[in-house]
Amino acid sequence: MKKLIAATILAITAHTAPAADITIRVDRPGTPVQPTMYGLFFEDINFAADGGLYAEMVKNRSFEFPQHLAAWRTFGRVELRTDSAPFPRCPHYVRLTPTGHRDKHTGLDNEGFFGVSVRGGASYRFSLWARALAPGAPARLRVELIDPSTAARTQVLASDTLAIPADAWQRYELTLTPSATAARGRLRIFLEGDAGADLEHISLFPADTWKGRPGGLRLDIAQKLADLRPGVLRFPGGCIVEGTDLPTRYQWKNTVGPVENRPVNENRWHYTFTNRFFPDYYQSYGLGFFEYFQFAEDIGAEPLPVLNVGLACQYQNDSEAAHCPLDSLQPYIDDVLDLIEFANGPATSAWGSVRASMGHPEPFGLKFVAIGNEQWDTPYTSRLAPFVKALRERYPDIKIVGSSGPDPDGARFDFLWPEMARLGADLVDEHYYRDEQWFLRNATRYDSYDRRGPAVFAGEYACHGADGHNYNHFNAALMEAAFMTGLERNADIVRMATYAPLLAHVEGWQWRPDMIWFDNFSSVATSSYYVQQLFATNRGERVLPLTAADGRPLAGQDSLYASAVTSPDGIIIKIVNTGDTPQPLAINLRGLRKKQNVSSVTLTELHSSDPRAENTLFSPARVVPRTRTLSAHPHARPPRTVLLQPRSQ
Ligand code: AHR
Questions:
Q1: Residue 201: left (phi > 0), alpha (psi -120 to 50), or beta?
Q2: 170: CATH
Q3: Domain count, the chain
Q4: Contact 501 CB / ligand 1 (< 6 Å)
Q5: Which one of 104, 323, 361, 592 is CB 3.0 to 4.6 Å from 99, fit for a cystine?
Q6: Which amino acid residue places its CA nearest to atom 5 of ligand 1?
Q7: At how many degrees (to 10) do helices 527-536 and 474-489 cross?
Q8: Is the pTM of this model over 0.85?
Q9: What are the pLDDT digits (tens) for 598-613?
Q10: 46 and 81 in a common domain
Q11: Quick check: CB of 500 below 6 Å from ligand 1?
Q12: Ligand 1 pocket, 511 CB below 6 A?
């Protein structure tokens, strides 16, 4: 009985198939490909969290933006008030009082994120905290979803009333089901009757969220992320970890516990690029560290939180005075140690009990922490040292990720790599937003890396096309795929890789290209997404030696790039043809055992003859993977070689 192996070929091509012979030594499986190899990097940029993955539809729900009524339109008698109860870290709320005239109205409406976009027939959960103004004076609210742009007789798509009987703060909830779809809808609240009310934390979520969790994540986006089957989830940034200044850095302790009491933080991406300026872009922290850990667990990815090292964004701050002094770092170090307790500590521990109170008594099993994002020079290394010391003492098993700065080469990079080795980082985070030629040239980048030092985490990368082609076209994805064969070939040193940024709202983006684009109703996977998905869902187990006719790794000869791995039932070969010549493909499988043969060949192809082809919300399937079974023609070739020669189509 012959042992059959299945060959899965992933071809990412500008043209149908490459020419040269490839030889794969199936008898020499090498280094394991880490389960963390292909993953996600999530940052709240481009309205990725608020207005994106986090499904909240009300903007400035707690009146905590610095312009406290931003995104709200008030009418009648509405007054902004402050009180440390019931949510000390979100003290603002509104007081609604009757106008005193039957035909005049008090209330407010919210514009949402680029509209409160609702679908006819779908259900939405409205909730708020409220209190009547006096005992025995119950208030009444009318809550509506409206379409202000309609020419129909009524703007109202859904309406219901809420009684507010108590003069103590309480949470109230109702479900609204709009009769029609509105892209630019609004949430409107009228005060009815003769009694006033105080309102706080006004919220609206689709009933249908990821895993059905109330107050959860947007289903279509979360599902696309899950469908990548990522091995690691890096969060929450990116530059937002640093902040434009230290007070606006991301502080995880503000992001856990009841959402109503999470303070709003400034999002640096509202002003970093004034050519795409979003003055009302803040972080509600509704998507906080508990939710990140939970999502990582849901999708089977290792969580990789990034924490501030005591530095504000170094691009934006030249002076040492902007950063935390070396002798005052303890609170920052405590943030890391406490986070590990939050993630992994027993439910009886101080921070573990916070996690347990949020519904997850079991530990999250955190294994990695990154200290610093894109930091450089001695301001970084001098601060990192005490973090490493404290971590090694308290949590010796936690792997530490250090930074190699914002560039993949140059003085900062050259300084940091040996420093990371000296300080004992386990992995070094490299970032590259570079053009086509850089990606092709760097397909062999890791072939000659020093194996004695820390491992590599390609933490942020994307091909930024030259000559005005800085968007998500197929050619950019092709370059990324060519480069990724080099990551895979060097899986002994490259342990993680995460494309960046991940998400972008079509109306709210600051940075492109991005892996997934969305509006309020739907989302679209770019060709870069499909490249990531093909690699991640075909990660395999061990790297197989793969060589071209010249005996070297296939990394640019005849515009071809390839890597191969073992899988439980055979082998997986990834081939990228960046050239423009379609030719037949011959793959030599060398070293098959006597009784082995090829049983089936599956070819998944991501192809476009138009290098500028782009998937959009309106044309989402211009570049998508297609799978077919090939009729292989196995030929025994001494010694124990099989030639796969797909029949020409
Ligand atoms: O991904 C966008 C930004 O690029 C990140 O915030 C930062 O780390 C890098 O400069």
A1: left
A2: 2.60.120.260
A3: 3
A4: yes
A5: 104
A6: 238
A7: 20
A8: yes
A9: 878 888 999 998 999 9
A10: no
A11: yes
A12: yes
